[in-house]
Amino acid sequence: MVGLGLEDLTKVRVDHLTLERVSRYYDHALNVAEETAEQIAMQTVEGRFAVTQAIATAYLLKYLIRDPRLFATPLYSNTGGPPSNPHRVIDVIGRDIFYKLQERLPLSAGRVYVEEDHAWLVYPSTAPDDELAIAVNIDTLDGTSNIASAHRDQASAIMITDLRRNRFLGGSIVSLVDDALIAIEPDSRQFFALRERYKKAHPALVPPRRHDQMLLATLGRHLESVVPFPFNRGQYTPDLLTFGGYGLLKVATGQITTMFDAAGQVWYEADMWGLMGEKLGLQVSDFQNNRYDWFKNLRDSQQPEFDERASYPIVISHDERSHWQFLDTYDEVMRNRQLHLN
Question: Which DSSP symbol is given to 51?
Answer without folding.
Answer: H
